[in-house]
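Lab notebook, bench 4. The sequencing result for the construct came back, and we need a structural model before the next group meeting so we can plan mutations. Quick request posted to the team channel:

Model the 3D structure of this chain.
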Amino acid sequence: MTKQEIIKYIDSGANFYLDFFGDAEHMKSTDSGICREICPKDGEQGIRFIYDLRLEHLSDDEAQAKIAELKALSLPIWWPLHSERIQRLLHGKNYAPQPPVEGDEFYMALFPENQPDVISAGANITRVKTAAEFKIWAEMANRVFASGYQDIHPINHYHWCEKNLLIPYIVYCEDKPVAVPAIMNNNGVASLEFVATLPEYRRRGFARAASIAAVRDAFAAGAIIITLRAFHPANLLYQSLGFQVYY
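Done. Here's the predicted structure in C-alpha cell form:
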C-alpha cells in the first residue's frame, strides 16, 4: 500500500468519525455539494464541524475563495490531507509536508502484521453490547473529552453500535468503569477512536490494554488497516503499539 493510499484512508477515517456525530436525531447534517456541515438542532447539544471537502474540481481562484469563506465561519474543519493541491492553497505554494512536532496532530496507521500481541494483565475489558452499557461508555467519553458536554448522545448514537459501525469497549477496575476506547468500522477500514481514561486512573496501563484489545478484535474481524489521529503525548502510546506516523 502506498503512502498516498494510507493518507486517503486517514482522511476517510476522519470523515467516517464525523459521520457518526452527525447521524443522530438531535443533529442536523447538510451537504452544500462542496462540503458537509454537522451541528446540533436548536436546543440540543452536539459538535459543529465542516468536513468531506470536495474542492478539486474548482480552479485555484475558486478554491481559494471557498477556503476563505469556510475559514470565516470560525468552525472546526477537516481539510483533506491527501490533496497536495488543497494543502498548498491552504499553506502557500512552497508548502511541503513536515514531520509533526509537539502541538501538532499526529496522523497514524497500523497494519495487521504490526499489531501488538500482549494485553496488559489485570484489565477487565468488556465490549459494549447493550443500550445500558453504551450509556456508560458515552458518559465516560463525554466526561474525558468534552468535560461532560454531550458530544455523544447516550441514546441517539446507539444505533451505530447496533449496526457494528461503532464497537466500543469499557475497562473496569474493581467494577468501576475507568477507561474507554472504540473501533469505527467502515467496511473493513477501521479507526481507533475515543481512547480515554479517567484522570485518577491514568498511568496504570488501562488505555494501553484497551487499545490492544480493540485493535486485535478489529483485525480478527477482517480490518485491513486501522487509522487514528492523536495529539502529543498520546501519539507515543500508539507508536509503542506499532502505529506509524504519516505526513
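Strands lie at 27-31, 36-40, 49-51, 105-110, 124-127, 166-173, 176-186, 189-197, 225-231, 244-246.
Will bring this to the meeting.
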